[in-house]
Amino acid sequence: MSYESILYEIKDRIATITINRPDQLNSWNDQVATEVYDAMQAAGADPGVRVIVFTGAGKAFCAGGDINSFGGDPNGLMTKLPRPFDMRKRADWQTRCSYYPAIPKPVIAMLNGATVGIGLIHALFCDIRFAAQDATITTAFARRGLTAEYGMAWILEHHVGQAHALDLLLSGRKIKGREAERMGLVNLAVPADELVAHTYAYARDLAQNCSPRSMRIMKQQLWEVPFQTCHEAVMSAGLDMPIANQGEDYKEGIASFMEKRPPQFPDDKF
Question: Which residues of the chain have pLDDT under 50?
Fold first, then answer.
């Protein structure tokens, strides 16, 4: 589809999806939701893409919901799925904001500025988060008379623990990238002028030196952890180990290591 609210670019096997509403601080509305979802699915299905970077144009990642799009039937937002339901996938990863764990490639959220409300929810469901040190991050809901929406309470507690989650949700206070890093909300906070270079250096390293199949399986394993016992995780891992140990990716990984050259992993088949 052609996009009006986002930009979509592929370079060096990295797909970049950019919310492109800088004059509105990339505020979220139904059109953005539809286009981001479509682009994520396209990148996930493209064998020429190995890593996805998700960011915002201008000074913000996403400054929350577009106030002009509020209203309508609030119950419909939760009871009506915005897309077909896939019986083959975990239901948890098919809601309006939680579909990123089902994308079969690493999704890196590059938080270049304000990350607020629903923007923070989407970032939290991504796999990796890099932030500018001066980026402002807030849940905001309590200060707008709202509650933790679209699974925010679950995913926030998953990343930072109950104490930090309660602090951020109940107070709705603003934090900067450095504090977010200390909490574990983002993987790393760097000076704003280094954010793009750092993010793409990391993304290129994954795209060039890591097996796409290995990354897909390990991402799936990690996002299954909240639903598993230790025994279930061990047994599930055991099903894939013989396949990996005899696979082409393993052979290439060993050969490239022994020959001291960059690996040439095949595109993933799934």
Answer: 76-79, 81
